[in-house]
Amino acid sequence: MDLKRTGALLGLAALTTVGLAACSDNNAGSGDQAAQQVADAECGGKAALKASGASSQNNAMTVFANSYAMSCEGQTLDYNSNGSGAGVKEFIGGQTDFGGSDSPLKDEEYTQAEQRCEGEAWNLPAVFGPIAVAYNLEGAEVAMSGETLAKIFNGEITKWNDEAIAAENEGVELPDQDITVIFRSDESGTTDNFQKYLEAASNGAWTQEAGKTFNGGIGEGAKGNEGVSAAVAQTPGTITYTEWSYAKSQDLGMVKVITPADAEGVALDAETAGKTIDSAKLKNEGSNDLVIDTSSFYVPEAGGAYPILMPTYEIVCSQYSDPETAEAVKSFLKIAVSEDVQGQLEGEGYIPVPDAFRDKLTGAIDAIQ
Asked: Fewer CB within 10 A of the terminal residue: the chain, N end or C end?
């Protein structure tokens, strides 16, 4: 079974007032159609921006780029959905104007980024995407705890009718069928965030640590959210972790995640994910480097909060060597985080930036030089 998939390449051309020109090889939702013109947009800087990175935000980036081109005549974004690892490397290497990553920069990456920037590099979370634990199992809706999920993804549990799964799903008919884990073969912030959840919520069952590379040691790899979701859709008995919009577009089953506050499990939807975002805290209050402390997400105290939620960061220079690039990046990001444009995201499987957080984002964007 060949589960490799190529990443999506999003190329956006200049738009007229009549319509949009956009394409993506593997868009999961209707992002290539959605857009919102921002009437009071502050447009400026160079005409063509280039960015790359997390595939989890690909559909959101399509909405942002379409809205940017509608709001700022003659200005476009070319976003390559090639994964968080590539996005960080290409930004640090000066190949792109900003990068997209599901994990903030590491210490050594901050140091490397400062060499291409005129100052610090900042992580700005413009997209919030829930991670679905998606599966292909006919006729069964299942709930699982973090401990059970950890044991599936590290190979301790290998059958769908295992006692641990059955105990968490009384009355559900579970088949005597092998579980096949599908994991991200590329470096991925989605992988990093999912493994951080397993570390935090598994009562010690996950000992493989986190990171952008899958550390479970089992299963079959596929590239990108596009690849893993398509592989699960094609193969009964499989399970994966993927960004919500891809699970929805493939009509996959999604695990209800059991938390200390919800023994029956919490289904993933906009309301349950929104409760999680409301609890967001920054690691460095008062800084324009807006890294979110996700530790409180994974074991929520509040009932009805879906625990596996991932902020995706736009990684920017605090000061660019080229003022034209700085102005264009600021213009694009202010449009992207605006209330009207964020309001387009729920249909694409994302959770709009909360109002209280928007002020912090716009303040940081305004500070880019």
From this structure: N
